[in-house]
């Protein structure tokens, strides 16, 4: 093999989530990935809608790119019936979009606590109810719902599902090909029960998506955009990748880093760095 | 009883951690608490050292104040032998200070990951080792070491012990009167295993300290100073207080809020608000 082929082979499982290259349009992302021999991307609903769902699907196909996941559905915790109905409608639209993009994985972020609500257990139960309401619709379209636990610092305002154990407690109420979980190193690295959760998820065939980002401090105001480039932080990324592999996962390794410092740089340079860091710290 | 006596009775278990009133000197804190009929405080090492440990002990005694805890020892995760030895020396000094203040409780914050370290399990084990090294010294002086799990958002830079379960896993290696745990609502509110942890801690006689603060967002940069006044956030404070009571805890309810907006206000006004919020949301 030539060194280019070697490099491409190294990157066979790498998927680049588009939020990592937020400075790029969808065509720039498709061209940039194709140029480096990267064959998979994770997409987000808003930029895909803006570009046009069918047009985005064609663009990815033209560049030989597989869409490994669509982010994101969810936000299921409203107790108001009208808000709940609107959320379910929006999630059905997300399922349709995932199907149109040819991805079998719709990532779900549960939603936080409604204003004034102090009952997080009840909010988690509403998440499970909403997923139950969506499963038949998603299954008919070949889309698996992937529950993503977010770091506990997001529990009040973004995602009441904070651990892999909680995500599995919900997922396991449904068939494994209909509801899975997302294993994201950024959200789970601190948890001494993550190992057991990954093994449990693997045994049940529940790992729908594996995402990597590093943990760095200090956290910025609002904490959403503080994710670190692979290798810049304290997460044992290779350890996580090995664990999901040992649990039987054979899917993509999706790099999802929300970081304004990366967004401020040249996209091609950042993507090349991501590929290098992936080889050095994850592969 | 007069209404003043009623009010004082209501506040019988209330302890005010001095970081809640950081704008106050130790004499201002002592006088302010005494004026409201508050009989307990939690103190911090640095301001106590600055004022003089013996002098602080006398000041509290003169105002009829019990010191319910001293914050804080810990920072045990260094892998460098010289740093580790320095940390143990500093913790022995903290134990002496706690004994001099007449409190049986030294709160321990474990410390984060050393620079470049990605092995959080090993860091937690170093915490347990250090506690083992300190237990005889503390026990001789009648001081119980109280392991405080901090919210997982502090796991890398401040405290590798993130859950009550992890704190108990370490504490239970020692006698209950020598090593206990801190139950702090701010750090534990998101965890669906906190209930089980509180019950387990109660059965083992391990609840050394109960602290309350509310969870509010957005988190500020660095996330340390984002705690909310009681009732301003999403934590079921009364639910927690009921749980620790049902687990057999009979000690103080210590209000510890790090919040620059409170520090910018008149101390007496803030303390009065704390007492009102305590009655409304905790009692």
TrEMBL record, chains A, B:
GO terms for molecular function: isomerase activity. Keywords: Isomerase. Residues 33-273 form the Xylose isomerase-like TIM barrel domain. Gene3D superfamilies: Divalent-metal-dependent TIM barrel enzymes. It comes from the Bacteria. This is Sugar phosphate isomerase/epimerase.
